[in-house]
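R.M. (postdoc): so does anyone remember the format we settled on? I'll just put the structure tokens first.
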């Protein structure tokens, strides 16, 4: 019997990405591109956002109710946050080291750079500052006053807090909780089916979003900031292969096997510059990769607020780039201050739109770097955001394996079987 040819999702997304770049470059400066294609990209992103909250709530409640042990959950939470803090600190240090070694801002002619409006980020920073987002306030904000409102605004930490407590409650009432568990099990299965359906629309969403982005700033605007872009991308690749690859090796995992399994999601995250678009599939795949449901359901959403490796690495490079552009020589103490401030602010305002820019605006002043410098790199921020999104996704995926190994609950047999499926079949993501 003749084998039916399948065009894998990764290639479909890649085709959408390439076509989008071509269309955006050909119609550079044409407002019609945004007018007609933006709705397609927005619809795709909205469809993904629509399913994220139900998947996280149902998966987490199922996982926690299955564990049902407050002490074990507390231990899991402590280990997760400790790991996140260690890795994000390494990311900041890698960013500072890269910027100090290669000096991307030295010799940049500021008159050749196009300034972009950063007013929206300034407004967000003022709102964030007025709410006093320190460490204690962040802890207070984890507890929701209205869970429906938290779900509507997709506040991950508040959703996790509620789901964990609800899952413990379901476990505590024994047999009475079985119908509730059956409901959430059905919800999770249904939402994963919906996710697979929405993913068929991904190539069109990617095509539209990239075409709009390229048509807005054009490829020529990249030349003056080429050194910064090359350094950011090189640092991101180094971080994935060397730092995350080293961590993976320590826990007995080959980073290339993980990248192979996540290739569709990484391409989609890169194209849309949104980690949210792949969150449901990451949860699904990391369970199949060998991490227990409760660990994946807890670690991945928490990582979206506390484990932004790519974002913190970029923030460190961008801060020094602006300092070098203005001929400001930061001392070792000032750079240490920058590391400490970034460690706090990158957690304190997690979840805010344009978080990397907002964090930079909130921290640059602490070491005397002019905030106006961000206006010079705002134009290419979308392209830099694409790279840091990939690192965030890989970092959070690997975190589930590290924590599962740390808890001695990782299933190596399951992982080997799942990786072999990807090695032996070039078809779309296996079920």
């Amino acid at each position: 019997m003749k084998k039916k040819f399948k065009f894998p999702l990764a290639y479909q997304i890649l085709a959408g990405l390439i076509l989008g770049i071509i269309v955006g470059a050909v119609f550079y400066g044409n407002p019609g591109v945004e007018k007609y294609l933006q709705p397609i990209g927005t619809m795709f992103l909205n469809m993904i956002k629509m399913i994220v909250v139900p998947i996280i709530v149902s998966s987490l409640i199922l996982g926690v109710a299955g564990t049902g042990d407050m002490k074990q959950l507390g231990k899991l939470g402590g280990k997760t946050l400790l790991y996140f803090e260690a890795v994000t600190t390494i990311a900041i240090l890698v960013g500072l080291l890269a910027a100090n070694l290669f000096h991307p801002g030295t010799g940049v002619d500021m008159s050749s750079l196009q300034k972009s409006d950063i007013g929206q980020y300034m407004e967000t920073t003022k709102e964030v500052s007025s709410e006093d987002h320190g460490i204690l306030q962040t802890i207070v904000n984890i507890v929701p006053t209205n869970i429906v409102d938290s779900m509507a605004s997709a506040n991950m930490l508040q959703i996790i807090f509620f789901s964990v407590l609800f899952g413990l409650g379901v476990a505590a009432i024994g047999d009475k909780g079985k119908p509730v568990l059956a409901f959430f099990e059905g919800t999770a299965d249904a939402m994963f089916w919906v996710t697979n359906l929405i993913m068929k629309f991904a190539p069109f969403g990617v095509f539209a979003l990239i075409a709009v982005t390229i048509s807005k700033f054009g490829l020529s605007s990249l030349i003056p900031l080429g050194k910064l872009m090359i350094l950011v991308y090189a640092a991101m690749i180094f971080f994935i292969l060397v730092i995350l690859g080293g961590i993976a090796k320590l826990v007995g995992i080959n980073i290339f096997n993980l990248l192979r399994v996540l290739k569709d999601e990484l391409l989609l995250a890169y194209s849309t510059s949104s980690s949210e678009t792949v969150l449901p599939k990451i949860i699904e795949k990391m369970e199949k990769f060998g991490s227990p449901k409760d660990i994946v359901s807890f670690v991945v959403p928490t990582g979206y607020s506390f484990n932004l490796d790519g974002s913190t690495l970029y923030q460190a490079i961008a801060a020094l780039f602006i300092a070098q552009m203005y001929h400001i020589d930061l001392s070792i103490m000032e750079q240490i201050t920058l590391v400490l401030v970034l460690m706090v602010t990158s957690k304190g305002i997690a979840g805010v739109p344009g978080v990397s820019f907002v964090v930079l605006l909130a921290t640059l002043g602490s070491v005397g770097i002019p905030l106006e410098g961000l206006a010079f790199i705002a134009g290419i921020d979308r392209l830099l955001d694409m790279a840091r999104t990939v690192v965030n996704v890989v970092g959070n995926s690997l975190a589930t394996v590290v924590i599962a190994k740390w808890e001695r609950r990782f299933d190596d047999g399951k992982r080997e079987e799942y990786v072999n499926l990807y090695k032996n079949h070039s078809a779309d993501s296996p079920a």
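R.M.: ...and that's the designed sequence above, right after the tokens. Also worth knowing: The chain has one domain: 9-424. The two ends are 23 Å apart (CA to CA).
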